[in-house]
Specification:
The protein is α/β, with parallel strands linked by helices. The chain has two domains: 239 residues, Aspartate Aminotransferase, domain 2; 103 residues, Aspartate Aminotransferase, domain 1. The protein contains nine helices and 13 strands. The strands form four sheets. Strands 2-10-9-8-5-3-4 form a seven-stranded mixed sheet, with helices on both faces. Strands 1-12 form a two-stranded parallel ribbon. Helix 1 packs across helix 6. The chain is globular, with a radius of gyration of 21 Å. The protein starts with 5 loop residues before the first strand and ends with a helix. Bound molecules: pyridoxal-5'-phosphate. The site of pyridoxal-5'-phosphate (PLP) has 12 residues, from helix 3.
């Protein structure tokens, strides 16, 4: 597979080559069944084993304690923006949100449709270049949960200090899912779309604390209820079988690579290499994010002018370094370096950056 290019896409994104090849081998005739896994009943023994293994591995790799259930739900992270308040917010409750950027804003917008929502902190005045510290969070009485976005995919910032507050946390972890350990005791619910660190698009992985399911709202459509989804083992309706199958393979790959610790170690190494290159460029490259809040997954940077940025992206593309354009809402450049992106790809990018600077500075 020598034609694989360096893919810095923010999502869907690079998956482990070994996983892709394994899936290719098994695709037409799954384990001698005479049919593909995606042609079988989702209630049969083959898929049953696949789904069970993925669920067990999701909890194992992320280190989720026994009082959490894992759910596989369609609709991506975006549907969770609605499902969280629909299920958790009672008539007399409030929900607190950290407004840390584009994705947090989306979660806030949707939550406002379902209940009383306020901002515990707002990063807008800092242009979303940093995450808050615990002592900056302002919580009101009767707050059911504090919603955080562990990593803002577009702004390139990540939570570096988990909030130390006396209300349960709900976390959107889409873009740094399973790339570092989390303090489970602080959380009631954790969710994320799978297409950044965990697999192909098609669903969210949701971890929910079992004890809260007795108190979730019942007056919503059945698919949207966490308690029903949990009771049915995420098989209330036909699940996205291919996504679950691939997720299982990616989780197995993560485990074999050394699990969460190895993912975190690699993320620090890869992002460190890139930030060092940016910081060492004498401000030819420039990262607008506060140092402590810098994302280990989405590295954003600017060049001295928009013309140079365009040239940089075009020439990088010709050198097989793909998808380095920043999100259309903020411009600039962004390299997404999720778990499965090889270190060699980041090293190739750094080489290219240094060469480009020499010829264009
Ligand atoms: C990509 C992303 C989303 C949206 O995920 P979908 O699965 O496409 O709905 C939400 N939050 C964050 C932080 C993201 O990076």
């Amino acid at each position: 597979m020598s034609n694989r290019k360096h893919n810095f896409s923010a999502g869907p994104c690079t998956l482990p080559l070994s996983v892709l090849e394994e899936a290719q081998k098994e695709f037409v005739d799954y384990q001698g069944a005479g049919m593909s896994l995606i042609e079988m009943s989702h209630r049969g023994k083959h898929f049953d084993a696949v789904a069970n293994e993925a669920m067990v591995l999701a909890k194992e790799v992320f280190g989720a304690p026994d009082d959490f259930s894992v759910l596989f739900l369609q609709g991506g992270a975006l549907l969770q923006f609605s499902m969280v308040p629909m299920n958790l917010l009672g008539a007399n409750d409030k929900a607190a949100y950290v407004n840390s950027g584009t994705w947090a804003k989306g979660a806030i917008t949707d939550a406002r449709e379902y209940g009383n929502v306020y901002l515990a902190w707002d990063g807008e005045s800092d242009n979303f270049t940093r995450m808050p510290l615990s002592n900056e969070l302002q919580l009101e009485e009767n707050t059911r949960y504090l919603h955080i976005t562990s990593n803002e995919t577009i702004g390139g910032i990540r939570i570096h200090e988990w909030p130390d507050v006396n209300v349960p946390l709900v976390g959107d972890m889409s873009s740094d899912y399973m790339s570092r350990p989390i303090p489970w005791r602080k959380f009631d619910l954790v969710y994320g779309g799978v297409q950044k660190n965990l697999g192909p698009a098609g669903m969210a992985v949701v971890f929910v604390r079992k004890s809260i399911l007795e108190h979730t709202n019942r007056n919503i459509g059945r698919y949207l209820r966490y308690d029903i989804q949990e009771e049915k083992g995420s098989m209330f309706n036909t699940p996205p079988v291919f996504t679950i199958y691939m997720l299982g393979k990616v989780l197995k790959w993560m485990k074999a690579e050394g699990g969460l610790q190895a993912m975190e170690h690699n993320a620090i190494k890869k992002s460190g290499l890139l930030y060092d290159a940016i910081d060492g460029s004498g401000s030819f490259y420039n990262c607008p994010v506060e140092v402590a809040s810098r994302s280990h997954m989405n590295v954003v940077f600017r060049l001295p002018s928009e013309e140079l940025e365009q040239k940089f992206i075009a020439e990088a593309t010709q050198s097989d370094l793909l998808n380095l354009k920043g999100h259309r809402s903020v411009g600039g450049c962004r390299a997404s370096i999720y778990n499965a992106l090889p270190y060699e790809s980041v090293a190739a990018l750094v080489d290219f950056m240094q060469t480009f600077q020499k010829t264009n500075a």
